[in-house]
Amino acid sequence: MRIEGRPGPRTSGAAPSGAGVLPAGGELCGVSVRNVTSGATEFTCNAYLVEGAVPTLIDAGAMPGVASEIARHVDELDRVVITHQHGDHVAELEAVVDAFDPAVYAAGDHPRRTEPLADGDTIQVGDASSEVVTTPGHADDHVSLVGQTAVFSGDVLVYDDGAFDDGSFGRTDMVGQSRERLIESLRTLADRIPASATRLYAGHGSVFDADDHDDSLQTVVDRALERAERREPKYPEE
């Protein structure tokens, strides 16, 4: 299914994750990508505002006032894409929807969801198209967005967090999570991320840009996969 531009009339469709949040930004095909929760004092995910032809928010986060922060940069928000529905990713979704009336894309049911996502869908984010890749393990409804130059990975794949600094993965020790499914999701990403993709916008930690490192994005995925495959606790308290 191909999803581009603004959808037609919409109808309503309804554990914390990794490490802390670091400021993140950059460009995607020349379009600004902003982490609008970078100033949060609360535990939240990175919420990425992608400007361009189709202004898009990747996850709403849990920072009170995030709708006002979005409004500092755009007048309209076409859509919100939810990678998964842990509280640190959706706590402020209601406020964002009330402020902007965007379409809400999610793989799992949610009262504010207007558009379902399925593996293989193509969705426009800003000026670029991304493929929806289902990536469960950290959460049953987890999806990642894989584009030609950038990947929005939610919590399944992280560059740096409290466990690893150069290739990490979402925790799998809580109810409803599965290390085995997450390993398969990382293998799927390793197969479906194109060689042209150089940026990783993860749900926690900093943005990875291969232009600023000796490693490629594929190396980061491979390193995270190797660590996940050890099947050891990610954090000492697990």
Write down the secondary-structure element order: EEEEEHEHHEEEEEEEEHEEH
Rg to the nearest angstrom? 16 Å
The number of distinct β-strands equals 16
Which ranges are low-confidence, i.e. pLDDT below 50, for 5 or more consecutive residues?
5-24
What fold name stands as the CATH topology of the largest domain?
Answer: Metallo-beta-lactamase, Chain A
Question: Mean of residue pLDDT?
Answer: 90
CATH-defined architecture of the largest domain: 4-Layer Sandwich
Classify the beta-strand content into a percent band. 15-25%
Query: Into which percent range does the helicity of residues fall?
Result: 10-25%
CATH class of the largest domain: Alpha Beta
Strand order of the largest sheet: 1-9-10-11-12-15-16
What overall form do the CA principal axes indicate? Answer: globular
- Structural classification: alpha/beta
| Structure annotation, total helices | 5
